[in-house]
Amino acid sequence: MAALAVLLLLVAASLAAAVEGGAAWSFWPPPAGDDPYCLSWRVMVEANNAKNWRTVPPPCVGYVWRYMAWGQYARDVAGVADQIAAYAAQLAAGDDGLDAWVFDVDDTCLSNLFYYQAKQFGAYDPVAFRNWASKAICPGVPGMAQLFQTLKGRGFRVFILSGRDEQTLASSTAANLAAAGFASYDRLIMRSTDYRGMSSVVFKSAMRRQLTEEGYRIRGNVGDQWSDLQGDFVGDRVFKVPNPMYFVP
Ligand SMILES: [Mg+2]
């Protein structure tokens, strides 16, 4: 009888804590640290419900590192690559050589994880990022170079479209892509001085318009930011590579 009373007391206490906690409508298992909050935050980011955030929320810095470095990110990227390969396998690239894919660079082909981890996923700093990117030491995002080979093997053109500054980062970006195994792309398109200061959506829309006017049919478009995938001439299908590290408008 005493045991039953204690049990009822515990249930009542956990219900009260759950109600008091507001969002904590899960009674078992107990939350582990900040992970439930941070997982919800990451889902909001990936779904593009959270916009214009400048930094990872401080309680989630450790969570983002664990997500990125401990295997889940690599699994999620592999899932994206599988979806791309499955979709591409259904397409027949025309003999005219005009069926194309567009890929972003940063955190789509080349990973900036070590740069952002070193600054604790802090706000975007153009000078520091340029210094990092000019070193040309980004590792490849897992599986992406292989995906290039698959798409090329199926007869597609692959264009790399980056908001990186062309004047200062063209040679280091090309060298980094080559070092990370991205040798098979058709053209690297970067932000010329004419497009400095413009949003990624505006710049990338203009570049995709040019490709379209050259006659290319953009069958797929791959990026880690929604701003890679929105705007004009986005392509027949877009694929979002996960990135909970930063937001580019
Ligand atoms: Mg990117």
UniProtKB/TrEMBL annotation:
Q: Which residues form the signal peptide?
A: 1-18
As one GO molecular function, the record gives: acid phosphatase activity
Q: Which UniProt keywords apply?
A: Glycoprotein, Signal
Q: What is the similarity comment for this entry?
A: Belongs to the APS1/VSP family.
Q: Which NCBIfam families match?
A: plant-AP
From the Swiss-Prot or TrEMBL record, give the protein name: Acid phosphatase
Q: Whose protein is this, by species?
A: Oryza punctata (Red rice)
